[in-house]
Design a protein that fits this description.
Chain lengths: 226, 143
């Protein structure tokens, strides 16, 4: 799993470990080694925008890969008129293109029945000040749809699209802004890392063997609200 | 006809780096057009939106749609008009469709339903929409 040192990534790792998966946790943040050690997993510090970073992860993953969770992501929010080309490209490169590179590089190592889970976002349907992030997360959806067809029936590919999740990133938002956003969620609350981790863990299980090419919007009903 | 800006997605090949380049170039070109108060239409191949083509082409097609939806939300007050037209095989005729090209004159081709849709959007107040031309729909098997 990539992006494993973050709040959401850490919880997903715990759920996958509890389900019996032998994990390789990847992040640019060196803290991933501490997170991995706590879970009895292997930690890899890698920059997935660099060929050597992808190579290090592929080597660490071994010859048989059952699950890949593409969770690494950044935000560089700005109004479109103020968004720099560099910040647009950086978000695309890390959130989308790096996931593409790693997924394609691991293709020969996926076992029969393997599951790829791409962490998309409700923002793939559009969000103010997030032209870059929306494009990157929507791009993951299309990439997954195509791979699901190319790699079926050997490998399943799905996406999870959370809305607001209670992580250090959202905790840093001004409380009044966060409250306004939460008020638009029919479920009446912010999502928890457990809400999302449970779905990822499910998609990795044989129980989800008939699900591929799909997006699960884990957003408390936000996509259907005005 | 208004000063429509049309941007069409072309085939990417198999270099993942082309995904970042294509989306970034599209963003820069589209923003310039919107800031110049030009309505924008992005043309993609419907099969790419559905994941029925190559994985990289699909990533760019859906990425463009996500970007358009964000720009529509952001530009609502400013009056930006930006839409996506998904048609059958926009780039299947062998001609390389470059980003940034504005083939407005294609709208005069009455035999081309994609061009007609694009021409309609030039005069429309619609924004943030995906218009599908042809029979492609999510869940429908390709012919």
């Amino acid at each position: 799993m990539t992006g494993a040192a973050g709040g959401l990534g850490g919880r997903i790792g715990e759920r996958l470990a509890a389900a019996g998966h032998e994990l390789v946790l990847v992040d640019l943040d060196p803290d991933v080694e501490r997170v991995a050690a706590a879970q009895g997993a292997r930690g890899v510090v890698a920059d997935l925008t660099k060929p050597e970073g992808v190579k290090a992860v592929v080597e660490a993953a071994g010859t048989e890969v059952g699950v890949l969770v593409n969770n690494a992501g950044i935000t560089r929010d700005a109004r479109t008129v103020n968004m720099t080309e560099a910040n647009f490209a950086a978000v695309i490169e890390i959130n989308l293109t790096a996931a593409i590179r790693l997924t394609l590089a691991l293709e020969p190592r996926f076992v029969e029945g393997a599951s790829v889970v791409n962490m998309s976002s409700r923002a793939s349907l559009g969000n103010f000040g997030q032209a870059n992030y929306s494009a990157s997360k929507a791009g993951l959806v299309g990439f997954g749809r195509a791979l699901a067809q190319h790699w079926a029936p050997r490998v399943r590919v799905n996406a999870v699209a959370p809305s607001l999740v209670d992580t250090p990133m959202t905790q840093a938002m001004p409380p009044e802004v966060l409250a306004k956003l939460v008020a638009k969620i029919p479920a009446g609350r912010i999502g928890t890392p457990d809400d999302i981790a449970g779905i990822v863990a499910f998609l990795a299980l044989p129980d989800a063997a008939y699900i591929t090419g799909q997006v699960i919007y884990a957003c408390g009903g936000r996509t259907v609200a005005p | 006809m208004s000063d429509l800006f049309v941007l069409r997605q072309g085939p990417l090949g198999d270099d993942p780096g082309a995904v970042t380049r294509a989306l970034t170039e599209a963003f820069v070109a589209v923003r310039e057009a919107l800031e110049a108060r030009r309505p924008v239409v992005i043309g993609v191949t419907a099969g790419d939106l559905l994941g029925q083509g190559g994985p990289l082409d699909a990533a760019v097609a859906t990425g463009l749609l996500g970007m358009v939806r964000a720009l529509e939300i952001e530009g609502a007050k400013a009056g930006w008009r930006i839409n996506v037209v998904a048609g059958p095989g926009l780039a299947e005729d062998g001609e390389k469709q470059e980003f940034g090209v504005a083939p407005v004159d294609e709208a005069a081709d009455e035999e081309d339903p994609v061009a007609l849709t694009i021409a309609m959007l030039a005069e429309s107040e619609l924004t943030g929409q995906l218009l599908q031309v042809g029979g492609a729909n999510l869940g429908k098997l390709p012919a």
